[in-house]
Amino acid sequence: MISKAVVEALQKYVPEENILLQEPMAGHTTFRIGGPADCFLQLENEEQLKKVQRYLNLVGVPFFVLGNGSNLLVNDKGYRGVILQIGQKMSEIVVQGCRIAAKAGASMAQAAQAALKHGLTGLEFASGIPGTVGGGVVMNAGAYGGEMSQVVTQVTVVNSEGETMEIDNEGMEFGYRTSTIKHSPFTVTEVVFCLKPGDREAIKGKMEELAARRRERQPLEYPSAGSTFKRPEGHFAGQLVMEAGFRGFQAGGARVSDKHCGFIINTGDATAADVRKIIGEIQERVKEMFHVNLETEIVFLGWEDI
Ligand SMILES: Cc1cc2nc3c(=O)[nH]c(=O)nc-3n(C[C@H](O)[C@H](O)[C@H](O)COP(=O)(O)OP(=O)(O)OC[C@H]3O[C@@H](n4cnc5c(N)ncnc54)[C@H](O)[C@@H]3O)c2cc1C
């Protein structure tokens, strides 16, 4: 539990209406799953973030940086700490020539739309990824041959001392669905993309084509966190899940999608425990049958054993 003294201190840095106590995380994840966070802060700018981060580090209160919660499984018991949400309140986008500077809370779709408006090509892949630019750069999000690592030139972060730092593409150490930030106490505040001039109609056409492919193949009509597992080398995770007999497999309200076995969906009343049960069973059986370790792509929050 967060003490009254901590909440009072946070009120000095963040407007009171942006501080939510015992906030259900189910309302902030695309899985629509997750118990209450002790304290949930909706940050409006880098200055607030710096002060809050410095203070929480000083007093030793745990915190977690949240984007759109589209890659997240939060425990049913919630999170004992402070959630720092970098979302729509920090989402300004500035385009200059071929350079797009997006605040970390802008959605990937907003960044892609800005590129389209200015006739810039390179971000079409991002238009259907339901995360923020900050979450996207941390996860090195990608789809249909495109990836953040191909278009990001500079990332602005706040470190644990509350100082601003710039990281270039090489310093990001991008890998498959990972970057250096995934394992560092840095919070992304801005991402700079370097794109190429393109034909507006062709860019729009590409986005529409990718959106149609998603609608056709992914269970977008249900809450989920996207692909549950990373692609193991030499295999497709969804195919292994299907071949292991899990299509339509259900635990409580969670179900392996019939449309795309790589997705676990929330059919209405799924708990985080239901989702973890399915993940565990799949990993065990896939290991037994195919000798492949399926690593999760989704991020777990509030679990003591992860
Ligand atoms: C239907 C669906 C389809 C999807 N399709 C794709 C796809 O095609 N390709 C793909 O790569 N992913 C896909 N995803 C997964 C997800 O959208 C991406 O991983 C996305 O990049 C996560 O962004 P987010 O803002 O939601 O991050 P969150 O889920 O909020 O957080 C993810 C991680 O990033 C960290 N983080 C978030 N913001 C910041 C920040 N500002 N600073 C520091 N750390 C931060 C969090 O602490 C956490 O560790 C899909 C998800 C869904 C639900």
Secondary-structure map with pairings?
Elements lengths: L3 H10 L5 E6 L11 E7 L3 H14 L3 E4 L5 E3 L4 E7 L7 E4 L2 E5 L4 H10 L2 E2 L11 H7 L2 E2 L2 E2 H4 E7 L5 E5 L18 E8 L1 E2 L2 H18 L6 E4 L9 H7 L6 E2 L2 E3 L6 E4 L5 H19 L8 E3 L5
Parallel strand pairs: 2-5, 3-5, 4-19
Antiparallel strand pairs: 1-2, 6-7, 7-13, 8-14, 9-10, 11-12, 11-13, 15-18, 16-17, 17-18
The structure holds flavin-adenine dinucleotide.
Flavin-adenine dinucleotide binds next to strand 3, helix 4, strand 9, strand 13 and strand 15.
Plain-language structure description:
- There is one protein chain.
- The protein is of the alpha+beta class and 306 residues long.
- The protein has three domains: 4-85, Uridine Diphospho-n-acetylenolpyruvylglucosamine Reductase, domain 2 (2-Layer Sandwich), CATH 3.30.43.10; 90-203, Uridine Diphospho-n-acetylenolpyruvylglucosamine Reductase, domain 3, CATH 3.30.465.10; 219-301, UDP-N-acetylenolpyruvoylglucosamine reductase, C-terminal domain (Uridine Diphospho-n-acetylenolpyruvylglucosamine Reductase, domain 1, Alpha-Beta Complex), CATH 3.90.78.
- 29% of the residues lie in helices and 26% in strands.
- The protein is built from eight helices and 19 strands.
- The strands form six sheets. Strands 6-7-13-11-12 form a five-stranded antiparallel β-sheet.
- Strand 9 and strand 10 form a beta hairpin.
- It is globular, with a radius of gyration of 20 Å.
- Flavin-adenine dinucleotide (FAD) is lined by residues 30, 64-72, 86, 104, 129-132, 134-136, 138-139, 141-143, 181, 187-188, 218, 220, 224-226, 299.
- Flavin-adenine dinucleotide is lined by residues 30, 64-72, 86, 104, 129-132, 134-136, 138-139, 141-143, 181, 187-188, 218, 220, 224-226, 299.
